[in-house]
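CHAIN AND CONFORMATION:
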Amino acid sequence: MHRKDQTRKLKVGLIGLGHWGPNLARNFANHPKVILTFVCDTLPSAFDRIENFATPTCIKTTNPEDVINSEEVEAVIVA
């Protein structure tokens, strides 16, 4: 494995901030090899559940297709 690969971070999008979503978001946000790039929930008030650990660059949307179709996301997790 090349050194560049060792420092590379996986860009993750998360759909769903119901029961498990905030826990997954927190774990991804705190993981050294992951960037939580996108979060999605149909209820905008759900974003309050992740405000303490989502970075300012994390994009919030109510449209799951924004996450799925984003070129900034390499992996999509549905919670």
